[in-house]
């Protein structure tokens, strides 16, 4: 333990000044085992403004090119929030430069691209993790305890997940997430990523056997998905459905139904409040004698979350990077989970393209 | 108004001593405009025991045959909780005997059967209503206000509804709802009825254009559905999904997502508590500047429900019966809604039987 406390913090370089990088750079500052060492943009002015606006430490370096940052020997790890179409190119360079990689989701335009990224990380011995924050929330561990409890929850049977938000006219016209050459998976890659991850999470990351897109997805003129859904099926009869959209009000629901219990929450990606997060547990609830009310009533469990989920993510990633620096192998769990998520997105897209036919998942 | 207060209460006869009849007979007792006049079972002993166990008034008549009750000129209205396969036979006799009809759901084994019932009611000038209680809850009217609010909710875009409960070994072997010759629609007709009704309700009872069953329904050995789901599609891109099951923990969710708001509740069929019922309203919620929490947080609206929903149902039905006795025509809204619900159930079943193909709804 003494050795661990002596490990210096992991030095992060940030490549690209996307909106989401504001939150993650704050998280890097707040994590006890990480520091911001540099930021790069194709425009040095933009990088400089970003560093100022986000109160980067004065010693943080400002680069006018991604390459320059990647050549900096002081950088341990890179946070990469670039548009998805640029992931494979830059992620491979990051890995080749022996930098560990924390990358925004969706991780790639398709699984083949992601495999190139994962291979580069593996060959260069660097840690990979995607930027799905909610799985690092303390609440998520508490929800996992419930789902794993054979007495309170039993076996998972069905699940529904939903993430939608109403993009305004500007978003629907100009955001990178509606552009085929930038984030070509649209709402499926952005909002759907979270739904699919939540379904995998609840299923202990067991891939479904079959995926079927729901009829009636909404595409924009360029063919990018603005709204869609799918059902996922496992051999033992387990079922999951999800719905993701840029066209309807902000909603982020999980309902996971087991043989003995049900989990509900309405803020699984971004918790309602900063300092606490809740979920609803229904365990073997039934009705009173005349079936006019429930016995017992489902209960709300609240978890104190002094450390924001994005800080938990950076802390965990940095811990793993520290382990690698101390001689451990990179943790393979994270790229495996990213790949499974991407694989399901690909399959949903294929099912849409083929006319909503069931597609078997080959893992 | 003076005339109305002088209208004598509607006299109910109950045909069949199903469990659900306990709750409805209590509701008839509690409704200000209804009284229990008689109960009939094929066994007079069973009818007598039922009357005693449910504290029927001493003047309530006990009949050992359905026909005898239906010949009683004092009876205005009949509550019919028989197995679905018997509905068409007895409902037609009820109507021919000029009794108004409050009937349990599902209303029939299929729409053709229901059309026979509806026609008999129409030809005999009697009021029809099905026994879906939750639509009469005071909360439901409050939720309707929210869904109708173009500023707070906007236009409905997507909806998910779920009703499941875990039938025990005895239920799954012996309950009438798993028997092909009694309630042949199984979980679809029982639990799915509520999901479909909630979807129609949220869509102002506009039928979808297309219905597609989800893959992977679970059937028992006799071919009765124990678990299934479907997606429903409207021409303007609106989407609804539902899941119903006898095989997973008690869950009854509605999520209705509009362009500006979202409605959530977890007890739409049977409210958690007797005296109050709640729902969650999210209207134009979004995130704080750094996207770490919501602004504002969705709010819970609680409605005081001193009158149980089943009493509201009996009261409304009796009010309509009173109107008919005073010369009005029967309210056609209720059989129309029942028919639409049944039509969608039929269509889901057909989609399952045809291999999960989309089926167009012909209204």
From TrEMBL, chains A, B:
Which stretches are transmembrane? none
UniProt-recorded name of the protein: Gfo/Idh/MocA-like oxidoreductase N-terminal domain-containing protein
Any one Gene Ontology MF annotation carried by this entry is: nucleotide binding
Kindly indicate where the leader peptide sits in this chain: none
Q: Which family does it belong to?
A: Belongs to the Gfo/Idh/MocA family.
- Family matches, as Gene3D superfamilies: Dihydrodipicolinate Reductase, domain 2, NAD(P)-binding Rossmann-like Domain
- The residue ranges of the GFO/IDH/MocA-like oxidoreductase domain are 148-263
Show the InterPro entries listed in the entry: Gfo/Idh/MocA-like_OxRdtase_N (IPR000683), GFO_IDH_MocA-like_dom (IPR055170), NAD(P)-bd_dom_sf (IPR036291)
Q: Which organism is it from?
A: Dipteronia sinensis
Q: Name one Pfam family in it.
A: GFO_IDH_MocA
């Amino acid at each position: 333990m003494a050795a661990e406390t002596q490990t210096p913090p992991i030095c992060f370089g940030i490549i690209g000044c996307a909106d989401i990088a504001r939150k993650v750079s704050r998280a890097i500052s707040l994590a006890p085992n990480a520091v911001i060492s540099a930021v790069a943009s194709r425009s040095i002015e933009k990088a400089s403004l970003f560093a100022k606006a986000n109160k980067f430490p004065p010693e943080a370096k400002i680069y006018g090119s991604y390459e320059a940052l990647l050549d900096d020997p002081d950088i341990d790890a890179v946070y990469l929030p670039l548009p998805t179409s640029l992931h494979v190119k830059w992620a491979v360079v990051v890995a080749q430069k022996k930098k560990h990689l924390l990358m925004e989701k969706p991780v790639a335009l398709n699984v083949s691209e992601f495999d190139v990224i994962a291979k580069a990380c593996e060959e260069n011995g660097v840690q990979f993790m995607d930027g799905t924050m909610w799985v690092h929330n303390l609440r998520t561990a508490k929800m996992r305890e419930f789902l794993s409890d054979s007495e309170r929850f039993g076996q998972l049977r069905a699940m529904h997940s939903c993430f939608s938000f109403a993009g305004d006219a500007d978003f629907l016209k100009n955001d990178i997430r509606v552009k085929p050459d930038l984030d070509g998976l649209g709402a499926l890659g952005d909002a759907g990523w979270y739904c699919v991850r939540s379904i995998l999470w609840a299923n202990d990351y067991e891939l479904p056997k079959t995926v079927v897109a729901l009829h009636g997805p909404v595409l924009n003129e360029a063919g990018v998905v603005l709204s869609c859904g799918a059902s996922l099926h496992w051999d033992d009869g387990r079922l999951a459905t999800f719905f993701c959209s840029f066209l309807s009000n902000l909603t982020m629901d999980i309902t996971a139904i087991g043989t003995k219990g049900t989990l509900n929450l309405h803020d699984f990606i971004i918790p309602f409040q900063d300092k606490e997060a809740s979920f609803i547990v229904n365990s073997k609830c039934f009705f009173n004698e005349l079936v006019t009310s429930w016995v017992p009533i489902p209960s709300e469990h609240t978890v104190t979350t002094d450390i924001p989920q994005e800080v938990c993510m950076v802390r965990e990633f940095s811990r793993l990077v520290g382990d690698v620096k101390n001689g451990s192998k990179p943790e393979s769990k994270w790229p495996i989970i990213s790949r499974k998520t991407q694989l399901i997105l690909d399959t949903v897209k294929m099912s849409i393209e083929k006319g909503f036919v069931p597609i078997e998942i080959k893992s």
